[in-house]
Design a protein that fits this description.
Order of helices and strands of chain A: HHHHEEEEEEE
Radius of gyration of chain A: 22 Å
Strand content of chain B: under 5%
Strand order of the largest sheet of chain A: 1-2-3-4-5-6-7
Largest sheet of chain A: 7 strands, mixed
Number of domains of chain B: 3
Shape of chain B: globular
Structural class of chain A: alpha/beta
Largest sheet of chain B: 2 strands, parallel
Oligomer: heterodimer
Largest interface: A-B, 13 and 16 residues
Distance between the termini of chain B: 56 Å
Chain lengths: 223, 329
């Protein structure tokens, strides 16, 4: 007997594309390029085997990060999405938090938006070095806790952290303002040469501050 | 004698068929269906034949046309009133009923049909008379089709395949007109179960099951339309256009369905209007899941060929029909 479905032997279904699919596809494309650029950065820096935060390694890694994202088009929501990818380490083979923080800082500094809001609450990541060299005119608002070296080398921008930050917060900052709603770690403001750090919680220790001001619960603690 | 001529001629016209009592209608069933006619102990087989019938709207002198008789007609159309102006124009022709008459041909034809010649020889000679009459029509500015041309058209028509959408849509339509989840198929004597899941489909709005003659009519007439339009394949538009005319006389609608649409503004008689509504509804449903239905049919092909995959699931009766054909139900 003839197969009653034989006319459909060679039929291959067309994938129905709805507008949402297009948006998702373009988002996927952006995310893939963000991940690819991050992989490249990690590959370059992994030569050091164990990546340690040092003056030279931070400058070098940031310069590499800037170079890898030079021609990329993305938005704030893509940065936030990238942070989800960091959390899912199966997609990112080397979630080195220091490098991730520098990479995200480079993304924030180059983003078109003046105000960047990142929600890190209830997330299994501790980003270090976030806010590195945030330029004047930009405001970074973070919900959740951040790791060490938050806002280092701050370059005139504003960082608001609705949570705690680690050691060396605001280290080497040149100008700008940091507001930490909870507590910060040791050596806060180490080598800072300008700007203000406002801590609404407790400061575990103040570093060697050259210039600039540090406040704790509204009261000045440095100079 | 009239009956003798009627059974012999390949083209038959039954005028006002619904003035024929139901008991008499069955006499012509076999002839209409297979082209076999019996007259004075002689069997005539019309190898090429066509039956036209006219029926008036119901009045005191009309009978119901029995469903088996209706089913044997491929299509039903309304010979509409031409409108005031054209009607006036027709009425103004002097002796309009005699315009196409050709007495010599008529006499020749009658003489031939009454002769004792073998039927085959008789028909060959009848064809010659047709040709003569055809030449007369040409002189009048008409362009009749010759037997050879007719054969060529039929060959070309048969060669026009249904494209995949036309094919899948027709299957979808048939499934809605024959499916019953509860009783395996629609049957005129069985009623839909209260609260049936498939109330949104046509199976819930009709009383009877569509016959197997319906897809045959559909294919022939959709092919004819596609040929007329010079298309290389039969597409879904051809199916959609032809379907109401192949369905309207074959479906027995439930009262609720009729009541919903009978008062709607329309240009067609109610049976054709209802069939158009139904065809559009199925087309809408097909449009929403055309890729999925075609994929289900493609998957069914693979399963039939022995591939061990699951048939595609779906809510529409077509998915259930596919599963049943695959022995999954």
């Amino acid at each position: 007997m003839k197969n009653p479905f034989s006319e459909f032997k060679d039929f291959r279904p067309k994938k129905r594309e709805i507008p949402l699919d297009k948006i998702i596809a373009s988002k996927e494309k952006v995310m893939q390029s963000l991940i690819k650029a991050y992989d490249k950065l990690v590959e370059q820096e992994a030569k050091e085997l164990v990546w340690l935060v040092s003056y030279h390694s931070v400058i070098r890694a940031y310069a590499s990060a800037e170079k890898t994202i030079k021609n990329m088009e993305y938005g704030v929501e893509d940065i936030e999405e990238f942070l989800f990818e960091i959390e899912d380490s199966s997609k990112l083979p080397y979630p080195i938090m220091g490098l991730s923080g520098l990479y995200v800082s480079a993304l924030c500094n180059r983003a078109k938006e003046r105000e960047i809001v990142l929600d890190l609450q209830n997330r299994n990541i501790a980003l270090h070095l976030l806010g590195y060299r945030l330029p004047k005119g930009k405001k970074l608002i973070v919900y959740g806790d951040l790791g060490d070296f938050t806002g280092i080398g701050l370059n005139g921008g504003e960082i608001w952290v609705e949570g705690n930050t680690g050691n060396w917060t605001g280290a080497g900052m040149r100008m700008g303002k940091m507001v930490i709603k909870k507590s910060v770690g040791r050596r806060t403001g180490e080598d800072m040469v300008g700007g203000e750090i406002h801590v609404e919680g407790k400061i575990l220790g103040v570093g060697n501050v050259r210039y600039g001001r540090i406040y704790e619960k509204g009261g000045i603690v440095s100079p | 004698m009239v009956w003798s001529n009627f059974v012999q001629l390949p083209v038959k016209i039954v005028d006002e068929i619904n003035r024929l009592p139901e008991t008499k209608q069955s006499i012509i069933l076999d002839g209409v269906d297979r082209g076999n006619w019996e007259y004075l102990n002689e069997m005539f087989t019309n190898y090429e034949y066509c039956l036209f019938a006219t029926a008036n709207y119901q009045d005191l002198g009309t009978f119901t046309i029995i469903p088996p008789m209706l089913d044997r007609f491929d299509v039903m159309v309304e010979s509409k009133h031409p409108g005031a102006n054209i009607s006036y124009l027709i009425g103004s022709f002097y002796k309009k009923d005699e315009l196409l008459r050709h007495e010599k041909c008529e006499k020749e034809l009658n003489k031939l049909l009454s002769s004792k010649l073998p039927y085959k020889t008789k028909m060959e000679r009848v064809e010659k008379v047709y040709e003569k009459f055809g030449k007369y029509l040409k002189k009048m500015g008409l362009k009749p089709i010759s037997k050879e041309e007719r054969r060529a058209i039929q060959r070309q028509m048969v060669g026009l395949e249904l494209d995949l959408d036309a094919n899948a849509y027709l299957r979808t339509l048939i499934s809605e007109l024959s499916f019953c989840y509860k009783y395996g198929q629609k049957r005129a004597n069985e009623k839909c179960e209260e609260g049936c899941h498939f109330t949104g489909y046509l199976c819930h709005s009709i009383k009877n099951c569509i016959s197997n003659r319906f897809p045959v009519s559909m294919k022939v007439y959709a092919q004819a339309l596609a040929w007329l339009l010079g298309e290389k394949q039969v597409n879904i538009e051809h199916i959609k256009t032809v379907a109401p005319y192949a369905l309207s006389h074959r479906l027995q609608w439930k009262e609720e369905f009729v009541a919903t649409y009978e008062k709607e503004s329309r240009m067609d008689p109610l049976p054709i209007h209802l069939a158009k509504v139904a065809v559009d509804k199925v087309l809408e449903r097909y449009g929403e899941q055309r890729e999925s239905i075609k994929e289900a049919l493609a998957v069914a092909y693979s399963i039939s060929q022995g591939e061990e995959i699951a048939p595609l699931e779906g809510d529409h009766p077509i998915y259930w029909e596919i599963k049943r054909d695959l022995g999954e139900l």
